Amino acid sequence: MDPIILASNSPRRKQILEWAEIEFEVRVSNADETYPADLPTDEVPIYIARNKAMAVKKGPGPDRLILAADTIVVLDGEIIGKPLHQKEAIGILERLSGKKHLVITGVVMMKDTKEICFSDTTEVEFHELTSLQIEFYVDKYKPYDKAGAYAIQEWIGVIGIKNIHGDFYNVMGLPVSRVVKELKAWRD
User: Which residues are catalytic?
Assistant: First the structure.
């Protein structure tokens, strides 16, 4: 099978696909990541991932399978986006401290008229984090490109995660075992 097209510039998604030894080429979608206000929360990441895939599909280049994904963090029913600055990142982590939240990644795979879409949900619980821990993390790691203002594979995940129920790689940005399963089904 030809290498797939990853419609993402996420270093984490690239790393996960490399670990899974899936051949891919990156094409950044620059798609609009807004969504209708009345869209059910669990459908938001699939909606955004579909927009990313469609943006790449309309672009130039060979017609190959496109893989797009989007990850959201949900706390008490509210989608927590990417922080714009230090103060916002600190505020998000203060809200997540000592609580459980959901990480939902929507995945869309498409080629020609065929499309497969799914989402994966992982529950993550943080220990109580101190102000010093939060400020250290934000100042050192600058998590401004991360939904929920953190990356599980970084320092804050190592010291701050109390429990995780579900796919670790989903929290990183791609439920890779499910992606591998769907790629196999696509080929068969």
Answer: 70
